[in-house]
């Protein structure tokens, strides 16, 4: 367990509720925060860096492509947090599909995805979704963080009609660098 000394939420964070194409629901705008940790992280095992990207000629996570979520949240409707980090594959959905599930203005800062019977559950919010990207510079695959878990169906039941929403980290790179006070945290694809 790592102690957090400070949480800096996005100044534009808004929790809204209302009518969506699926009925009554809630959603968060600018759902992102930076955490200041009490101690430095030691990389190894399941702890390692994910690269943030601030530019892309192509979409970082195009529809149909797989990425991996990670979290310690519930695995079903029973409120038991997991003692070890779990992961699950998700598939990016098209913008058209996403706007059938969520308000259009919401999706401008988000990405949505579907998992086959698996996906983020309560307790996973704030966790990463990463995809492998082949770096031409290094000749190796690198993990790029494409999003942050924002919401999914509250009952943890995923089928072909249930999507999860992720904050699109690409759109917040400038904010992250400003809050941290360091330029260059977010990389150009050509640099990785």
Automatic annotation (TrEMBL):
Peptidase S1 domain segment(s): 1-181
Domain of life assignment: Eukaryota
Name of this protein: Peptidase S1 domain-containing protein
Record keywords, A-Z: Disulfide bond
TM region positions: none
Presence of the UniProt keyword Disulfide bond in the record: yes
Any GO BP annotation: proteolysis
Coiled-coil annotated residue ranges, if any: none
Alphabetized GO MF terms: serine-type endopeptidase activity
PANTHER family: PEPTIDASE S1 DOMAIN-CONTAINING PROTEIN, PTHR24260
Record SUPFAM superfamilies: Trypsin-like serine proteases
Annotated organism of origin: Mesorhabditis spiculigera
